[in-house]
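User: I'm curious whether this sequence folds into something compact or stays loose and floppy. Could you predict its structure so I can see for myself?
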Amino acid sequence: MKLATTLAAVPLILLFGSHNLLAQEDDDWASLERYQEANAKLTPQESAENRVIFYGNSITDSWASLFPEMFPGKHYLGRGISGQTTPQMLVRFPQDVIRLEPDVVVILAGTNDIAGNTGPSTQTMIEDNIVSMVDLALANSISVVLCSVLPVSDYPWKPGLNPGPKIVELNAWMRQLAQNEGLVYVDYHSEMVNDSLGLARELTYDGVHPNKAGYQVMARLVDPAIGTALDRRQNHTTPNR
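Assistant: Here's the prediction. I'll summarize afterward.
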C-alpha cells in the first residue's frame, strides 16, 4: 500500500533533509501550510484520469495559473512555492506529492540552492536532496519527470555568484541521473539559454523567472515528456533498479 511505503520512506527525509524537522514545525520553514487546504479539497482520482503534479519553486508556482490555457483538459496540479530550496521541498514531499497519489511528478529544483536562499549549499547537498525526492517517488509508484534548472547569469537578489557554470554542472548531473534511473529528462536549459549562460531576454522579465513566452517554451518541452512517462506506466516499463 502507498501509505505503508510512504511511512517506510520517511527515514530518508531524516537522513538527507538539511534542516531540523522540529524547528520547521515551529515556524513552518518548509511552508507546509501553503497547500494543506487545497490538498484536502482534492477528490479521489477517477480511473481514467492521469494526475500530474508540478513540484518546484516560484517558477512552478507562477506557472500553475497558466495550466488551463497551456495544458487544456489535463489534470495538472501546481505545487510550487516561491523561494524554496531542495531541503524545503524534500520536507514537504510526502504531503504535497506522495499523499496526493499522482501518476507523475515533474520536479524542477535547485536554482534557489545555488542562490543560497537557505544558506550555503554545495552541489552534493542538492544532489542528495534530489535523489531523496526521486527515491520517495519511485518507492510510491510515482513516475518522475526530472527537469533541468533554467539558465541564470546573475540573481538580482544575490548578485555576483556567477551561477551559470554551476547550473550547467548540476544539469549534467541530473541528465546522468535520469539516464541511470530510467527517468524522463526535460532539457529546458538548452532551449532557453543565451550566450552568457543566462535566460534569453525574450523569455524572461527579470533574468530568472520566465515570462509567458518562456512558459510556452517550457510547456512545449514538458508536455510530451509527461506523455512519455505515462506511456511507460501503461506499458509497465519500470525504472532501472
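Summary: The first helix runs from residue 2 to 16. The chain is about 50% helix and 10% strand.
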